[in-house]
Amino acid sequence: MKQIIQIYKTGELKIETVPEPALKPGGVLVQTHHSLISAGTEKMKVDDANRSFIGMARAKPDQVKQVIETFKQQGPMATFRKVWNRLDSFTPLGYSLAGRVIAVGKGASDFNVGDMVACAGADLANHAEINWIPVNLCAKIPEVADGVEGDTAGFLPTDQAAFTTVGSIAMQGVRQANVQVGESVAVIGLGLVGLLAVKILKAAGCEVFGIDIDPRKSELAKRIGADATVIVGEADVISSALSFSGGRGMDKVIVASGGKSNEPIITAGEIARDRGTIVNIGINRMDVPWKLYYGKELILKQSRSYGPGRYDPEYEDKGRDYPIGYVRWTEKRNMESFLKLMANGDIDVSPLVTHGFNFDDAKDAYQLLEGRATEFYVGVILKYDVSEENLGKARIRSIGERGVAKTPGQTNIGMIGAGNFARTMLLPHITGEDGVNLSCVATSTGITAKDTARKYNFDRCTTDYKELIDDDSIDTVMVLTRHNLHGPMVAEALTTGKNVYVEKPLAITEESLDVVKSAYEDGDGKLFVGFNRRFAPLVVEMKSFFDKRTEPMVITYRVNAGFKKKSDWYQQIDIGGGRIIGEACHMIDTVQFFTDALPDSVFARAIRTSNVSVTQEDNVIITITLNDGSIASITYLANGDPMFPKEYIEIFCDGKVAVMDNFSSLVTMSNGNMKKQKNFIQDKGHKAEMKRFIESVRDGTEAPISFESLYTTSKVALKTHESLMGNCLVKI
Length: 732
Fold this sequence. Notes:
Layout: E1 2-7, E2 12-17, E3 27-37, H1 41-49, H2 53-59, H3 61-87, E4 90-92, E5 96-104, E6 116-120, E7 130-134, E8 138-140, H4 158-161, H5 164-177, E9 184-188, H6 192-203, E10 207-212, H7 215-223, E11 228-231, H8 237-244, E12 250-255, H9 263-271, E13 272-280, H10 290-296, E14 299-302, H11 313-316, H12 331-343, E15 353-358, H13 362-370, E16 379-383, H14 388-394, E17 398-400, E18 411-416, H15 420-426, E19 436-442, H16 446-456, E20 460-462, H17 466-470, E21 476-479, H18 486-495, E22 499-502, H19 510-522, E23 527-529, H20 537-544, E24 554-560, H21 579-595, E25 599-606, E26 620-626, E27 631-637, E28 647-653, E29 656-661, E30 665-670, E31 673-678, H22 686-699, H23 707-726, E32 730-731
Parallel strand pairs: 9-10, 9-12, 10-11, 12-13, 13-14, 15-16, 18-19, 18-21, 19-20, 21-22, 22-23, 24-27
Antiparallel strand pairs: 1-2, 1-4, 3-5, 3-7, 3-16, 5-6, 6-8, 17-20, 24-28, 25-26, 25-32, 26-27, 28-29, 29-30, 30-31
């Protein structure tokens, strides 16, 4: 299929051929008929990409702070790779479209093939011929008496339904204002969202006053129903607003402008009546003038995008609706409401369509946003070829050459999943390795698959991971997906006799772990898990310092992991497994590496706090006894300063002491003699790990970590949860 992409590094926009997205549970595949270019949001994205690197940094100081944190925690090379990967990647555009359902995933039973739908969501409802949309971001288009001809006969036309997402943003702003019939409402900023707010307010029986700097937008607002408008700079806004409201001031003010100026917020306060309400929809500077807002006792609200449910993964990703008795207007219900207003004739968006382009000419449309064309624009619609012939061409799951014959001694690798970690910490150490061919990469979105194949020279890319499993020319599969898919995919690949590398954890449930165990024992493939820390140079040196030890070790391993929200996929037990299973397994493996022993019991205690935003199991002390008599204490913390170094290991044994600080320094002491080693470049062992993994597969050497150790590490992580819940010692 074809999709509009932007390369952030250069700002280049183009139409790229990519595989269609995978049909995942909880959603539907939609063939796009029309999509709407958001003149505000997408223009900001395009403008960002056209800035210099310094300009990007100034525009997004929060992201600069994240880069600084990454630099302190992971060092310069890892930081450089992550930043460069972000800049040199395909970025999708678009978030509002309408089309036809062509496939229904498991758990999306409210939809059927052939349903006409409006769809929402950044990185979901893209400017692409086919998109996968989760159920709560997909609303059925209502029927109308005079529908257009063709396949969509009887339904609201899709060029109008494509406005639904942006209309829902305006709808939520109006709902936040809690308007009543007959109230005087000002709309500051008459861009697309502001104009749609005008339409909704008029449908709600309000007297509407528009404010903008552009005379053309002001005129358009009056044409679609605004009772009066004022052009900033041509008339006194405050006196005009007071006159419009009979001297009382505006009951409600909706700020739909965007930019760095604080003037819209000041103006809103000045024209609002005593105890009036101001709702901010746009992206504005928010230096609220205290005296003005306090003196009038004004109510200031923020409107969060399409409505309740936005940014909640339980609602958007998992499709868990909010009970209507508690949340009347969710984002999906806002979408449905806006669609009904259009279908009933209460809102007509056709006057807002200033430009229409065929999808193949989309670059011309973006010239408007980039300022290369001087025409006035508001609503810009893209029209797609929806013929069966074109749909057949679009429905491709893979691109590139399949089944490339292996040359003697060559390892053909297929990769499932290609997130930021895979592309910055693993692939750079595989690309160009002798005797290795990157055969195929599979991801759930075509844009990521194609981009990864482009950057790392894979023979082909696909959105169907089973292609890799079924391809006899691929002897090794790397599983780099979200954690809940690790166990099933590893077992599936092992069953076919392939070698498997899986990023930790191996599995997130005991049932899944046992399935992997059976598949490994029944097959003849090798299994590797991404426990890279045991390959870090300072960790290897730390272990060698205790060569020929004669007594058990006492190990203290402290991890300043940093806070993660409960909404993060990593924290969700059914997807990420939580951070003990998802990350503390690294520390459990490293302890086994130091001791060359297996754990035989675990006891864990977590803090107890009334802070509901904290995942309490993220602040835990895990005590492990090993079968050689060694004891390890892993202190895993999320309540510290993230700028403090992350990992710290102390080992006491045989009258010796070794201390490693964040893979950057090592201090060893024996017989009163201290040795200090400092590495400028932090090395957590990813490069050495990949080298050992490839050598083992290519040369037929023994896997660097035994299956018994891999299995036990996973078991200990799972039993740590059992210990926490039962407040007891658990035998492994």
